[in-house]
Automatic annotation (TrEMBL):
<dbReference type="Pfam" id="PF05347">
    <property type="entry name" value="Complex1_LYR"/>
</dbReference>
<dbReference type="InterPro" id="IPR008011">
    <property type="entry name" value="Complex1_LYR_dom"/>
</dbReference>
<feature type="domain" description="Complex 1 LYR protein">
    <location>
        <begin position="16"/>
        <end position="69"/>
    </location>
</feature>
<protein>
    <recommendedName>
        <fullName>Complex 1 LYR protein domain-containing protein</fullName>
    </recommendedName>
</protein>
Length: 88
């Protein structure tokens, strides 16, 4: 299965720390809109911390793909909300 990370800028997709920071930014944005910032940010932190010592390259790639998928889904959701159009 091809990596989903190609939909993100390479400097973000190839760097776990930048990916983490972007996930936190999105979590803060979503949390602010839903009035549960601490909960959403804590969920993101918990997921990254749970896998911080992972060394298997395939597992790391899958985890990065999962994070990229979450970011892409949020970007599409926001675009749909702003334009009123449905993207697929």
């Amino acid at each position: 299965m091809p990596s989903l990370q190609t939909a993100l800028p390479p400097e973000l997709a190839n760097n776990a720390i930048r990916l983490y920071r972007e996930c936190l930014r999105r979590a803060k944005y979503i949390g602010h809109k839903q009035h549960n910032t601490e909960l959403v940010v804590q969920m993101v932190r918990q997921q990254f911390r749970k896998h911080v010592h992972e060394t298997d390259p395939e597992k790391i790639q899958k985890l990065k793909d999962d994070a990229a998928r979450g970011l892409i889904n949020h970007i599409l959701y926001e675009a749909e909300s702003m334009t009123g159009r449905k993207f697929s």
